[in-house]
Amino acid sequence: MEPNTSKGKVLVGTVVKTAMKDTVTVRVERYVKHPKYKKYISRSKKYLVHNPGNTMQVGDKVSIRETRPISKHKSFVIAERLHAAAKEE
What we know:
Layout: E1 10-20, E2 23-33, E3 40-50, E4 61-66, E5 74-83
Parallel strand pairs: 3-5
Antiparallel strand pairs: 1-2, 1-4, 2-3, 4-5
């Protein structure tokens, strides 16, 4: 048996909202080609992601991993922070 094998999707996105307890909203963008016009279009989707301890901030670039359902709408957890948001002072 292989140790520490992760199953499920791994996505990269940006934190856009942190208003809930232990939950952040992450926008994941993908670049797709239009089937008829052959032009590339940016598509995005928002995911509710489990954030234990409320450690993330708006603007952080994060990697999220699929897991068992945590609540009705949450099925992802934060795997790691890739880039911290710039602080405005």
